[in-house]
Amino acid sequence: MTAERAFAIAGIIVGAGAGKRFGGPKAIATLRDGRRFVDAAAETARDARLSPLVTVLPPGVEAPNGAVYVVNARADGEQVVSVRLGLAQLANTTVVGVVVWPVDHPFVTLETVLAVMDGARRTGAPIVRPQFEGEHGHPVFFHRDTWRELMTVADGGARAVVHAYGTRVAHVDVRDRGVLRDIDLPSDLDAD
Description:
The protein is of the alpha/beta class. 29% of the residues lie in helices and 20% in strands. The protein has one domain: Spore Coat Polysaccharide Biosynthesis Protein SpsA, Chain A (Alpha-Beta Complex). Strands 1, 2, 3, 4, 5, 6, 7 and 8 form an eight-stranded mixed beta sheet that branches. Helix 2 links the parallel strand 1 and strand 2.
């Protein structure tokens, strides 16, 4: 068994939100190259060998090829609800952790995802976040030991879990502005 297989990491792309400010669900919004946000993230996640790859999407949105499709019918709910639905799909797997990726961060590079995964393997930290020029971003690795907190946190969602782990959270420096590019409005697609 290879070290990579022994330290298998799954992925969850959360994209079930209504995208009110964007004008519709971001999962099906398209980039300038014609790919849907969810497909761009899934392509990078597959290239990083995140497996299994779970996509949590609104009803009627087609999942990317090869991804586990989970429906979150509550587009108005908190993002942590989608994280929980994704984690439930991974409960009976042997993965050691998961990279949680908000669909509204479609510009994250493969190098960044690999750096987050490598940071998890190297440090053994329960949570690993990428940071660009000192600002933390997405996607974030959560070790399996944190899943109970993610499943039960009442207020603040995954962010509250990250804060609760404080200095035990590892940060990986990346040269990828995509970790900070949260696409909330169509005009955000044009920003540098």
